[in-house]
Q: What sequence folds into this?
Protein backbone atom coordinates (compact mmCIF):
# COMPACT_ATOMS: atom_id res chain seq x y z
CA UNK A 1 0.00 0.00 0.00
CA UNK A 2 1.57 3.26 -1.17
CA UNK A 3 0.95 5.60 1.75
CA UNK A 4 3.35 7.77 3.75
CA UNK A 5 1.66 6.42 6.91
CA UNK A 6 3.04 2.96 6.09
CA UNK A 7 6.55 4.39 6.21
CA UNK A 8 5.90 5.46 9.80
CA UNK A 9 5.31 1.85 10.80
CA UNK A 10 1.49 1.81 10.94
CA UNK A 11 -0.17 -1.45 9.97
CA UNK A 12 -2.08 -2.06 6.76
CA UNK A 13 -5.37 -2.22 8.67
CA UNK A 14 -4.79 1.14 10.39
CA UNK A 15 -3.70 2.79 7.14
CA UNK A 16 -6.85 1.52 5.40
CA UNK A 17 -8.93 3.19 8.11
CA UNK A 18 -7.02 6.44 7.64
CA UNK A 19 -7.49 6.29 3.88
CA UNK A 20 -11.22 5.83 4.39
CA UNK A 21 -11.24 8.91 6.65
CA UNK A 22 -9.52 10.98 3.96
CA UNK A 23 -6.04 11.19 5.51
CA UNK A 24 -3.43 11.62 2.78
CA UNK A 25 -0.19 12.47 4.54
CA UNK A 26 0.93 12.88 8.16
CA UNK A 27 1.43 16.24 9.84
CA UNK A 28 4.85 17.08 11.34
CA UNK A 29 3.79 16.09 14.87
CA UNK A 30 2.49 12.76 13.54
CA UNK A 31 5.64 12.06 11.53
CA UNK A 32 7.88 12.65 14.56
CA UNK A 33 5.68 11.05 17.24
CA UNK A 34 4.27 7.85 15.70
CA UNK A 35 7.56 5.90 15.23
CA UNK A 36 8.87 6.35 18.82
CA UNK A 37 5.44 5.63 20.32
CA UNK A 38 5.15 2.48 18.20
CA UNK A 39 8.57 1.49 19.55
CA UNK A 40 7.30 1.83 23.12
CA UNK A 41 9.37 4.90 23.98
CA UNK A 42 8.24 7.72 26.25
CA UNK A 43 7.61 11.02 24.48
CA UNK A 44 7.60 14.73 25.42
CA UNK A 45 5.89 16.75 22.71
CA UNK A 46 5.33 20.48 22.35
CA UNK A 47 2.67 21.34 19.79
CA UNK A 48 -0.23 23.75 19.57
CA UNK A 49 -3.89 22.83 19.11
CA UNK A 50 -4.77 22.01 15.50
CA UNK A 51 -1.48 20.29 14.61
CA UNK A 52 -2.95 16.76 14.55
CA UNK A 53 -1.50 15.54 17.85
CA UNK A 54 -4.55 13.44 18.77
CA UNK A 55 -3.83 11.12 15.84
CA UNK A 56 -0.12 11.31 16.71
CA UNK A 57 -0.70 9.34 19.92
CA UNK A 58 -4.01 7.58 19.23
CA UNK A 59 -2.86 5.70 16.12
CA UNK A 60 0.32 4.07 17.48
CA UNK A 61 -1.18 3.26 20.89
CA UNK A 62 -4.28 1.66 19.37
CA UNK A 63 -2.13 -0.40 17.04
CA UNK A 64 0.03 -1.64 19.92
CA UNK A 65 -2.98 -2.51 22.09
CA UNK A 66 -4.95 -4.26 19.35
CA UNK A 67 -1.89 -6.14 18.09
CA UNK A 68 -2.19 -8.33 21.19
CA UNK A 69 -5.68 -9.43 20.00
CA UNK A 70 -6.85 -8.85 23.50
CA UNK A 71 -10.52 -8.66 24.36
CA UNK A 72 -11.88 -5.58 26.13
CA UNK A 73 -10.97 -5.64 29.79
CA UNK A 74 -9.12 -3.35 32.19
CA UNK A 75 -7.92 -0.41 30.07
CA UNK A 76 -4.54 -0.58 28.40
CA UNK A 77 -4.46 3.13 27.51
CA UNK A 78 -5.40 6.08 29.72
CA UNK A 79 -5.55 9.59 28.22
CA UNK A 80 -5.91 12.53 30.62
CA UNK A 81 -7.38 15.80 29.29
CA UNK A 82 -8.41 19.05 31.02
CA UNK A 83 -12.11 19.32 30.09
CA UNK A 84 -15.07 17.08 29.35
CA UNK A 85 -15.44 18.64 25.88
CA UNK A 86 -11.92 17.57 25.02
CA UNK A 87 -12.53 14.14 26.58
CA UNK A 88 -15.48 13.61 24.25
CA UNK A 89 -13.55 14.89 21.24
CA UNK A 90 -10.49 12.70 21.85
CA UNK A 91 -12.68 9.64 22.57
CA UNK A 92 -14.52 10.25 19.27
CA UNK A 93 -11.17 10.37 17.47
CA UNK A 94 -10.07 7.08 19.09
CA UNK A 95 -13.40 5.55 18.08
CA UNK A 96 -13.13 6.70 14.45
CA UNK A 97 -9.60 5.26 14.18
CA UNK A 98 -10.28 1.99 15.98
CA UNK A 99 -13.98 1.07 15.59
CA UNK A 100 -13.45 -1.13 12.54
CA UNK A 101 -10.54 -2.78 14.32
CA UNK A 102 -12.65 -3.68 17.33
CA UNK A 103 -11.39 -1.00 19.73
CA UNK A 104 -13.64 -0.07 22.66
CA UNK A 105 -13.10 3.47 23.97
CA UNK A 106 -14.79 5.16 26.94
CA UNK A 107 -14.79 8.86 27.90
CA UNK A 108 -15.23 9.53 31.64
CA UNK A 109 -15.69 13.02 33.05
CA UNK A 110 -17.50 14.95 35.77
CA UNK A 111 -21.15 15.84 35.24
CA UNK A 112 -22.02 12.41 33.81
CA UNK A 113 -23.54 9.57 35.85
CA UNK A 114 -20.78 7.81 37.81
CA UNK A 115 -22.61 4.46 37.98
CA UNK A 116 -23.04 4.24 34.21
CA UNK A 117 -19.32 4.90 33.71
CA UNK A 118 -18.49 2.23 36.31
CA UNK A 119 -20.68 -0.32 34.50
CA UNK A 120 -18.96 0.43 31.18
CA UNK A 121 -15.57 -0.03 32.80
CA UNK A 122 -16.72 -3.33 34.30
CA UNK A 123 -17.79 -4.59 30.85
CA UNK A 124 -14.28 -3.89 29.56
CA UNK A 125 -12.57 -1.32 27.34
CA UNK A 126 -9.29 -0.87 25.51
CA UNK A 127 -8.80 2.86 26.17
CA UNK A 128 -10.17 5.46 28.58
CA UNK A 129 -10.15 9.21 27.96
CA UNK A 130 -10.74 11.05 31.23
CA UNK A 131 -10.56 14.30 33.13
CA UNK A 132 -8.16 13.96 36.09
CA UNK A 133 -10.69 14.48 38.89
CA UNK A 134 -13.15 11.86 37.65
CA UNK A 135 -10.34 9.41 36.81
CA UNK A 136 -9.02 9.68 40.36
CA UNK A 137 -12.54 9.10 41.76
CA UNK A 138 -12.81 5.86 39.77
CA UNK A 139 -9.32 4.75 40.81
CA UNK A 140 -10.05 5.29 44.50
CA UNK A 141 -13.35 3.45 44.31
CA UNK A 142 -11.78 0.55 42.43
CA UNK A 143 -13.83 0.93 39.26
CA UNK A 144 -10.86 2.02 37.12
CA UNK A 145 -8.26 -0.75 37.28
CA UNK A 146 -4.67 0.31 36.61
CA UNK A 147 -2.96 -3.09 36.64
CA UNK A 148 -3.11 -3.69 32.88
CA UNK A 149 -2.25 -0.12 31.89
CA UNK A 150 0.36 -0.10 29.12
CA UNK A 151 0.37 3.62 28.29
CA UNK A 152 -0.62 6.96 29.83
CA UNK A 153 -1.02 10.15 27.77
CA UNK A 154 -1.20 13.67 29.22
CA UNK A 155 -2.87 15.86 26.59
CA UNK A 156 -2.93 19.67 26.98
CA UNK A 157 -0.81 19.25 30.11
CA UNK A 158 -0.32 23.00 30.63
CA UNK A 159 -4.10 23.53 30.62
CA UNK A 160 -4.56 20.80 33.24
CA UNK A 161 -2.01 22.45 35.52
CA UNK A 162 -3.64 25.87 35.04
CA UNK A 163 -6.95 24.35 36.15
CA UNK A 164 -5.46 23.00 39.38
CA UNK A 165 -5.05 19.31 38.47
CA UNK A 166 -1.32 19.01 39.24
CA UNK A 167 -1.80 16.89 42.40
CA UNK A 168 -4.40 14.66 40.71
CA UNK A 169 -2.01 14.00 37.83
CA UNK A 170 0.79 13.09 40.23
CA UNK A 171 -1.46 10.66 42.12
CA UNK A 172 -2.69 9.01 38.91
CA UNK A 173 0.82 8.58 37.54
CA UNK A 174 1.98 7.14 40.86
CA UNK A 175 -0.90 4.62 40.71
CA UNK A 176 0.00 3.50 37.18
CA UNK A 177 2.42 0.58 36.66
CA UNK A 178 6.07 1.62 36.68
CA UNK A 179 6.57 -0.22 33.37
CA UNK A 180 3.99 1.79 31.47
CA UNK A 181 4.77 4.01 28.49
CA UNK A 182 4.14 7.74 29.08
CA UNK A 183 3.52 10.53 26.55
CA UNK A 184 3.12 14.18 27.52
CA UNK A 185 1.84 16.82 25.08
CA UNK A 186 1.67 20.53 25.87
CA UNK A 187 1.41 23.77 23.91
CA UNK A 188 4.04 25.27 26.22
CA UNK A 189 6.76 23.69 28.38
CA UNK A 190 7.06 25.82 31.56
CA UNK A 191 9.13 24.58 34.53
CA UNK A 192 6.10 22.85 36.10
CA UNK A 193 5.69 20.66 33.00
CA UNK A 194 9.41 19.98 32.85
CA UNK A 195 9.34 18.85 36.50
CA UNK A 196 6.55 16.33 35.81
CA UNK A 197 8.43 15.05 32.76
CA UNK A 198 11.63 14.61 34.78
CA UNK A 199 9.80 12.63 37.48
CA UNK A 200 7.57 10.41 35.36
CA UNK A 201 9.08 10.03 31.86
CA UNK A 202 12.00 7.69 31.14
CA UNK A 203 14.54 9.02 28.63
CA UNK A 204 11.73 10.56 26.52
CA UNK A 205 11.93 11.28 22.83
CA UNK A 206 11.54 15.08 22.51
CA UNK A 207 9.39 16.51 19.73
CA UNK A 208 9.07 20.24 19.17
CA UNK A 209 6.69 21.56 16.54
CA UNK A 210 7.31 25.29 16.24
CA UNK A 211 4.39 27.60 15.62
CA UNK A 212 3.94 28.20 11.93
CA UNK A 213 5.25 31.58 10.81
CA UNK A 214 4.07 33.50 7.82
CA UNK A 215 6.53 33.45 4.92
CA UNK A 216 7.99 36.87 4.23
CA UNK A 217 6.10 38.59 1.45
CA UNK A 218 2.94 36.56 1.90
CA UNK A 219 -0.18 37.34 3.87
CA UNK A 220 -0.71 35.42 7.13
CA UNK A 221 -3.50 32.89 7.16
CA UNK A 222 -5.27 34.85 9.92
CA UNK A 223 -6.20 38.46 9.23
CA UNK A 224 -6.03 40.21 12.60
CA UNK A 225 -8.02 43.39 13.22
CA UNK A 226 -8.80 45.35 16.37
CA UNK A 227 -11.45 48.01 16.94
CA UNK A 228 -10.92 50.50 19.77
CA UNK A 229 -14.34 51.22 21.23
CA UNK A 230 -15.73 52.32 24.57
CA UNK A 231 -17.40 49.59 26.62
CA UNK A 232 -20.90 51.06 26.44
CA UNK A 233 -20.84 50.80 22.63
CA UNK A 234 -19.17 47.40 22.20
CA UNK A 235 -22.34 45.44 21.38
CA UNK A 236 -23.39 47.96 18.70
CA UNK A 237 -19.85 48.00 17.30
CA UNK A 238 -19.72 44.20 17.20
CA UNK A 239 -23.04 44.10 15.36
CA UNK A 240 -21.76 46.44 12.68
CA UNK A 241 -18.49 44.55 12.29
CA UNK A 242 -20.30 41.22 11.93
CA UNK A 243 -22.72 42.74 9.41
CA UNK A 244 -19.75 43.92 7.39
CA UNK A 245 -17.77 40.65 7.69
CA UNK A 246 -20.72 38.25 7.11
CA UNK A 247 -18.97 35.27 8.77
CA UNK A 248 -19.78 31.72 7.73
CA UNK A 249 -19.32 30.66 11.36
CA UNK A 250 -17.76 32.70 14.15
CA UNK A 251 -16.88 31.99 17.78
CA UNK A 252 -17.36 35.06 19.97
CA UNK A 253 -15.38 34.78 23.23
CA UNK A 254 -16.78 36.46 26.33
CA UNK A 255 -15.42 36.50 29.88
CA UNK A 256 -18.29 35.28 32.03
CA UNK A 257 -21.46 33.23 31.80
CA UNK A 258 -23.56 36.37 32.35
CA UNK A 259 -21.77 38.17 29.54
CA UNK A 260 -22.30 35.17 27.25
CA UNK A 261 -26.06 35.17 27.97
CA UNK A 262 -26.48 38.91 27.45
CA UNK A 263 -24.34 39.01 24.32
CA UNK A 264 -26.14 36.04 22.74
CA UNK A 265 -29.50 37.72 23.37
CA UNK A 266 -28.34 40.98 21.76
CA UNK A 267 -26.93 39.22 18.71
CA UNK A 268 -30.11 37.20 18.23
CA UNK A 269 -31.93 40.53 18.19
CA UNK A 270 -29.84 41.51 15.20
CA UNK A 271 -31.10 38.50 13.24
CA UNK A 272 -28.20 36.08 13.71
CA UNK A 273 -28.61 32.38 14.47
CA UNK A 274 -26.79 32.22 17.80
CA UNK A 275 -25.92 29.38 20.18
CA UNK A 276 -24.07 29.74 23.45
CA UNK A 277 -21.67 27.55 25.39
CA UNK A 278 -20.77 27.94 29.06
CA UNK A 279 -20.56 25.93 32.27
CA UNK A 280 -24.25 26.34 33.03
CA UNK A 281 -25.26 23.91 30.28
CA UNK A 282 -25.82 20.21 30.87
CA UNK A 283 -23.94 17.73 28.73
CA UNK A 284 -27.06 17.01 26.66
CA UNK A 285 -27.46 20.74 26.00
CA UNK A 286 -23.81 21.03 24.96
CA UNK A 287 -24.18 18.08 22.61
CA UNK A 288 -27.24 19.67 20.98
CA UNK A 289 -25.41 22.96 20.56
CA UNK A 290 -22.40 21.32 18.92
CA UNK A 291 -24.64 19.22 16.68
CA UNK A 292 -26.26 22.42 15.37
CA UNK A 293 -22.87 24.08 14.95
CA UNK A 294 -21.42 21.18 12.97
CA UNK A 295 -24.61 20.95 10.87
CA UNK A 296 -24.05 24.52 9.69
CA UNK A 297 -27.29 25.91 11.15
CA UNK A 298 -25.50 28.42 13.42
CA UNK A 299 -23.94 31.78 12.50
CA UNK A 300 -22.37 32.63 15.85
CA UNK A 301 -21.25 30.56 18.85
CA UNK A 302 -20.84 32.75 21.94
CA UNK A 303 -18.68 31.00 24.54
CA UNK A 304 -16.43 31.33 27.54
CA UNK A 305 -12.80 30.29 27.23
CA UNK A 306 -13.09 27.23 29.47
CA UNK A 307 -16.30 25.96 27.83
CA UNK A 308 -14.76 26.27 24.36
CA UNK A 309 -11.50 24.49 25.18
CA UNK A 310 -10.92 21.44 23.08
CA UNK A 311 -13.50 22.36 20.44
CA UNK A 312 -12.27 21.86 16.90
CA UNK A 313 -14.90 23.11 14.46
CA UNK A 314 -14.26 22.94 10.74
CA UNK A 315 -14.99 25.87 8.45
CA UNK A 316 -14.69 28.39 11.27
CA UNK A 317 -14.22 31.66 9.42
CA UNK A 318 -13.97 34.16 12.29
CA UNK A 319 -12.81 34.32 15.90
CA UNK A 320 -14.03 37.36 17.86
CA UNK A 321 -12.60 38.54 21.17
CA UNK A 322 -15.34 40.63 22.77
CA UNK A 323 -12.67 41.58 25.33
CA UNK A 324 -8.89 41.57 24.95
CA UNK A 325 -7.69 38.20 26.36
CA UNK A 326 -5.90 38.36 29.72
CA UNK A 327 -2.70 36.90 28.24
CA UNK A 328 -1.07 36.89 24.80
CA UNK A 329 -0.91 33.09 24.94
CA UNK A 330 -4.70 32.93 25.30
CA UNK A 331 -5.07 35.19 22.26
CA UNK A 332 -2.80 32.93 20.19
CA UNK A 333 -4.71 29.84 21.33
CA UNK A 334 -8.07 31.39 20.38
CA UNK A 335 -7.17 32.64 16.91
CA UNK A 336 -5.42 29.35 16.12
CA UNK A 337 -8.89 27.83 15.71
CA UNK A 338 -9.37 29.59 12.38
CA UNK A 339 -7.24 29.86 9.26
CA UNK A 340 -6.55 26.11 9.08
CA UNK A 341 -6.11 23.79 6.12
CA UNK A 342 -4.91 26.60 3.88
CA UNK A 343 -8.04 28.72 4.38
CA UNK A 344 -7.78 32.34 5.46
CA UNK A 345 -9.23 33.10 8.86
CA UNK A 346 -10.19 36.36 10.51
CA UNK A 347 -9.50 37.38 14.12
CA UNK A 348 -11.39 40.41 15.45
CA UNK A 349 -10.79 42.01 18.83
CA UNK A 350 -12.83 44.74 20.52
CA UNK A 351 -10.54 46.71 22.83
CA UNK A 352 -11.30 49.57 25.17
CA UNK A 353 -8.97 52.58 24.87
CA UNK A 354 -7.01 51.65 27.99
CA UNK A 355 -6.48 48.09 26.64
CA UNK A 356 -4.57 49.28 23.62
CA UNK A 357 -1.26 48.43 25.33
CA UNK A 358 -2.41 44.80 25.66
CA UNK A 359 -2.58 44.64 21.87
CA UNK A 360 1.06 45.69 21.77
CA UNK A 361 1.96 42.83 24.11
CA UNK A 362 0.19 40.39 21.79
CA UNK A 363 2.01 41.81 18.76
CA UNK A 364 5.35 41.31 20.51
CA UNK A 365 4.56 37.65 21.21
CA UNK A 366 3.13 36.80 17.79
CA UNK A 367 5.55 38.97 15.80
CA UNK A 368 2.54 39.95 13.69
CA UNK A 369 0.82 43.29 13.26
CA UNK A 370 -2.75 43.72 14.49
CA UNK A 371 -4.42 46.32 12.29
CA UNK A 372 -6.40 48.91 14.24
CA UNK A 373 -9.50 49.81 12.21
CA UNK A 374 -12.35 52.27 12.57
CA UNK A 375 -15.76 50.88 13.57
CA UNK A 376 -17.91 50.68 10.41
CA UNK A 377 -20.38 53.51 9.94
CA UNK A 378 -24.11 53.01 9.24
CA UNK A 379 -23.33 53.95 5.64
CA UNK A 380 -20.70 51.17 5.45
CA UNK A 381 -23.24 48.64 6.75
CA UNK A 382 -25.97 49.75 4.33
CA UNK A 383 -23.53 49.58 1.42
CA UNK A 384 -22.57 46.05 2.48
CA UNK A 385 -26.22 45.00 2.66
CA UNK A 386 -26.89 46.44 -0.78
CA UNK A 387 -23.91 44.48 -2.05
CA UNK A 388 -25.38 41.31 -0.51
CA UNK A 389 -28.72 42.06 -2.15
CA UNK A 390 -26.94 42.51 -5.48
CA UNK A 391 -25.21 39.17 -5.01
CA UNK A 392 -28.49 37.40 -4.18
CA UNK A 393 -30.16 38.86 -7.28
CA UNK A 394 -27.20 37.86 -9.44
CA UNK A 395 -27.52 34.27 -8.19
CA UNK A 396 -31.26 34.30 -9.00
CA UNK A 397 -30.56 35.56 -12.51
CA UNK A 398 -27.89 32.92 -13.07
CA UNK A 399 -30.21 30.17 -11.84
CA UNK A 400 -32.86 31.19 -14.39
CA UNK A 401 -36.36 29.68 -14.13
CA UNK A 402 -37.91 33.17 -14.13
CA UNK A 403 -40.68 32.55 -16.66
CA UNK A 404 -43.40 32.15 -14.02
CA UNK A 405 -42.62 35.65 -12.74
CA UNK A 406 -42.59 37.41 -16.12
CA UNK A 407 -46.36 37.72 -16.15
CA UNK A 408 -45.95 40.20 -13.25
CA UNK A 409 -43.05 42.14 -14.76
CA UNK A 410 -44.66 42.28 -18.22
CA UNK A 411 -47.89 43.67 -16.78
CA UNK A 412 -46.06 46.30 -14.71
CA UNK A 413 -43.71 47.21 -17.58
CA UNK A 414 -46.70 48.24 -19.67
CA UNK A 415 -47.68 50.70 -16.93
CA UNK A 416 -44.29 51.82 -15.48
CA UNK A 417 -40.72 52.31 -16.63
CA UNK A 418 -39.06 48.82 -16.66
CA UNK A 419 -36.08 50.24 -14.69
CA UNK A 420 -38.47 51.47 -11.99
CA UNK A 421 -40.05 48.02 -11.84
CA UNK A 422 -36.62 46.44 -11.38
CA UNK A 423 -35.69 49.01 -8.71
CA UNK A 424 -38.92 48.29 -6.81
CA UNK A 425 -38.12 44.57 -6.88
CA UNK A 426 -34.65 45.29 -5.51
CA UNK A 427 -36.23 47.43 -2.78
CA UNK A 428 -38.48 44.58 -1.67
CA UNK A 429 -35.60 42.10 -1.68
CA UNK A 430 -33.43 44.51 0.27
CA UNK A 431 -36.02 44.97 3.02
CA UNK A 432 -35.28 41.49 4.33
CA UNK A 433 -31.79 42.71 5.22
CA UNK A 434 -33.05 45.90 6.86
CA UNK A 435 -34.92 44.41 9.84
CA UNK A 436 -32.29 45.61 12.28
CA UNK A 437 -31.50 48.92 10.58
CA UNK A 438 -32.52 50.81 13.73
CA UNK A 439 -29.49 49.38 15.52
CA UNK A 440 -27.19 50.99 12.96
CA UNK A 441 -28.18 54.52 13.87
CA UNK A 442 -26.72 54.37 17.38
CA UNK A 443 -23.88 56.84 17.66
CA UNK A 444 -20.53 55.20 18.36
CA UNK A 445 -17.88 57.78 19.30
CA UNK A 446 -14.68 57.46 17.32
CA UNK A 447 -11.42 57.02 19.23
CA UNK A 448 -8.51 59.11 18.00
CA UNK A 449 -5.35 57.10 18.66
CA UNK A 450 -3.13 59.44 16.65
CA UNK A 451 -2.80 61.81 19.64
CA UNK A 452 -0.23 60.75 22.21
CA UNK A 453 -1.70 59.71 25.54
CA UNK A 454 -0.13 59.61 28.96
CA UNK A 455 1.01 56.02 29.56
CA UNK A 456 -2.26 54.59 28.28
CA UNK A 457 -4.19 57.11 30.34
CA UNK A 458 -7.77 56.24 31.17
CA UNK A 459 -10.33 58.48 29.42
CA UNK A 460 -12.53 60.71 31.54
CA UNK A 461 -15.48 58.93 33.13
CA UNK A 462 -17.97 60.69 30.87
CA UNK A 463 -16.42 59.01 27.80
CA UNK A 464 -17.33 55.55 29.13
CA UNK A 465 -21.05 56.12 29.36
CA UNK A 466 -23.64 56.43 26.66
CA UNK A 467 -26.26 59.22 26.97
CA UNK A 468 -29.12 57.94 29.11
CA UNK A 469 -31.66 58.40 26.33
CA UNK A 470 -29.62 56.27 23.90
CA UNK A 471 -28.54 53.58 26.31
CA UNK A 472 -29.93 50.11 25.78
CA UNK A 473 -31.51 48.13 28.62
CA UNK A 474 -28.34 46.08 29.05
CA UNK A 475 -26.24 49.24 29.18
CA UNK A 476 -28.52 50.81 31.80
CA UNK A 477 -28.25 47.67 33.93
CA UNK A 478 -24.47 47.82 33.66
CA UNK A 479 -24.49 51.50 34.64
CA UNK A 480 -26.67 50.76 37.67
CA UNK A 481 -24.16 48.12 38.82
CA UNK A 482 -21.33 50.68 39.10
CA UNK A 483 -20.07 50.79 42.67
CA UNK A 484 -20.58 53.72 45.04
CA UNK A 485 -16.96 54.73 44.61
CA UNK A 486 -17.63 55.30 40.92
CA UNK A 487 -16.04 52.13 39.60
CA UNK A 488 -17.20 51.10 36.18
CA UNK A 489 -18.83 47.69 35.50
CA UNK A 490 -15.64 46.82 33.59
CA UNK A 491 -13.64 47.25 36.79
CA UNK A 492 -16.21 45.33 38.82
CA UNK A 493 -16.10 42.34 36.50
CA UNK A 494 -12.43 42.20 35.57
CA UNK A 495 -10.95 38.98 37.03
CA UNK A 496 -7.88 39.48 39.14
CA UNK A 497 -5.04 37.07 38.47
CA UNK A 498 -4.02 35.22 41.62
CA UNK A 499 -0.40 34.62 42.45
CA UNK A 500 1.02 31.21 41.45
CA UNK A 501 0.15 28.48 43.92
CA UNK A 502 -2.51 30.58 45.58
CA UNK A 503 -5.16 27.83 45.47
CA UNK A 504 -3.05 25.34 47.39
CA UNK A 505 -4.16 26.75 50.73
CA UNK A 506 -5.15 24.46 53.56
CA UNK A 507 -5.72 25.28 57.21
CA UNK A 508 -5.10 28.99 56.59
CA UNK A 509 -6.26 31.70 54.22
CA UNK A 510 -4.59 34.23 52.00
CA UNK A 511 -6.47 37.16 50.53
CA UNK A 512 -6.98 37.34 46.81
CA UNK A 513 -4.80 40.03 45.22
CA UNK A 514 -6.23 43.24 43.88
CA UNK A 515 -9.36 45.06 44.96
CA UNK A 516 -12.51 43.24 44.02
CA UNK A 517 -15.73 42.14 45.65
CA UNK A 518 -15.43 38.60 46.97
CA UNK A 519 -17.97 36.06 48.21
CA UNK A 520 -17.11 33.16 50.48
CA UNK A 521 -18.81 29.85 49.67
CA UNK A 522 -19.31 27.07 52.24
CA UNK A 523 -18.72 23.48 51.04
CA UNK A 524 -19.89 20.69 53.34
CA UNK A 525 -16.83 18.47 52.97
CA UNK A 526 -13.25 18.79 54.15
CA UNK A 527 -10.08 16.88 54.97
CA UNK A 528 -12.02 13.97 56.46
CA UNK A 529 -13.53 13.35 53.00
CA UNK A 530 -10.11 13.64 51.32
CA UNK A 531 -11.08 16.98 49.74
CA UNK A 532 -8.28 19.11 48.31
CA UNK A 533 -8.17 22.60 46.76
CA UNK A 534 -7.70 21.08 43.28
CA UNK A 535 -11.06 19.26 43.62
CA UNK A 536 -12.90 22.53 44.22
CA UNK A 537 -11.04 24.49 41.54
CA UNK A 538 -11.54 21.73 38.96
CA UNK A 539 -15.26 21.36 39.74
CA UNK A 540 -15.94 25.10 39.42
CA UNK A 541 -13.76 25.58 36.32
CA UNK A 542 -15.19 22.54 34.51
CA UNK A 543 -18.85 22.89 35.47
CA UNK A 544 -19.29 26.68 35.68
CA UNK A 545 -17.17 27.50 32.65
CA UNK A 546 -15.08 30.12 34.46
CA UNK A 547 -11.35 30.61 34.66
CA UNK A 548 -9.52 29.17 37.62
CA UNK A 549 -8.02 32.65 38.00
CA UNK A 550 -11.40 33.96 39.20
CA UNK A 551 -11.21 31.73 42.28
CA UNK A 552 -9.54 33.14 45.38
CA UNK A 553 -8.32 31.57 48.62
CA UNK A 554 -9.47 28.08 49.61
CA UNK A 555 -9.51 26.86 53.23
CA UNK A 556 -9.86 23.13 53.90
CA UNK A 557 -11.00 22.24 57.44
CA UNK A 558 -11.82 18.84 58.98
CA UNK A 559 -15.51 18.69 58.02
CA UNK A 560 -16.02 21.67 55.71
CA UNK A 561 -14.23 23.98 53.30
CA UNK A 562 -14.46 27.65 52.38
CA UNK A 563 -13.69 29.06 48.94
CA UNK A 564 -13.59 32.69 47.88
CA UNK A 565 -14.90 33.59 44.42
CA UNK A 566 -15.54 36.94 42.80
CA UNK A 567 -19.06 38.27 43.25
CA UNK A 568 -20.17 37.98 39.62
CA UNK A 569 -19.46 34.25 39.37
CA UNK A 570 -20.66 33.24 42.86
CA UNK A 571 -24.06 31.89 41.80
CA UNK A 572 -22.51 29.94 38.92
CA UNK A 573 -19.88 28.47 41.25
CA UNK A 574 -22.52 27.38 43.79
CA UNK A 575 -24.66 25.75 41.09
CA UNK A 576 -21.59 23.99 39.69
CA UNK A 577 -20.56 22.58 43.07
CA UNK A 578 -24.10 21.43 43.81
CA UNK A 579 -24.40 19.73 40.42
CA UNK A 580 -21.25 17.64 40.69
CA UNK A 581 -19.81 15.18 43.17
CA UNK A 582 -16.71 15.89 45.21
CA UNK A 583 -14.72 12.81 46.10
CA UNK A 584 -17.65 10.69 44.96
CA UNK A 585 -20.34 12.37 47.08
CA UNK A 586 -22.83 15.22 46.79
CA UNK A 587 -22.24 17.93 49.40
CA UNK A 588 -24.04 20.94 50.86
CA UNK A 589 -23.01 24.21 49.19
CA UNK A 590 -24.15 27.71 50.15
CA UNK A 591 -22.97 31.27 50.57
CA UNK A 592 -21.07 31.48 53.83
CA UNK A 593 -21.51 35.20 54.48
CA UNK A 594 -22.52 38.41 52.68
CA UNK A 595 -20.10 39.70 50.12
CA UNK A 596 -17.23 41.75 51.40
CA UNK A 597 -14.66 43.98 49.77
CA UNK A 598 -11.03 43.02 49.98
CA UNK A 599 -8.35 45.60 49.55
A:
Amino acid sequence: MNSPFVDLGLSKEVVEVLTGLGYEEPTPIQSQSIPPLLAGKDLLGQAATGTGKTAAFALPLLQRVLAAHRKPGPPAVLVLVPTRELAIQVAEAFHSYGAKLGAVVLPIYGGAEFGRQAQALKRGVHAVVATPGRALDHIRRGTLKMDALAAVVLDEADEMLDMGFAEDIELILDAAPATRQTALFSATLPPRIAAIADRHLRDPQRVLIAREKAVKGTAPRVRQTAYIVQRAHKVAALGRVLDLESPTLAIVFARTRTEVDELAEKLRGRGYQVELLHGGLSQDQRDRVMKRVRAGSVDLLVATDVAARGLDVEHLSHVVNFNVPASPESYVHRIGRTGRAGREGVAITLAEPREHRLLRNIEQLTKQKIDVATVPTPMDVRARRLDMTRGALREALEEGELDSYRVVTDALASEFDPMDVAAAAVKLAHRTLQADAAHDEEHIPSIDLSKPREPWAKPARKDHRAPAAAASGAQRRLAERAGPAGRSPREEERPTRPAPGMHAVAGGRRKAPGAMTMVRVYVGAGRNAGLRPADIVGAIANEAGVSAREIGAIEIEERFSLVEVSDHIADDAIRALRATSLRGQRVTVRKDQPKRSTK
Q: What stands out?
A: Confidence is low (pLDDT under 50) at residues 214-220, 435-439, 448-515, 595-599. The chain is about 40% helix and 15% strand. The longest strand covers residues 516-523. The two ends are 68 Å apart (CA to CA).
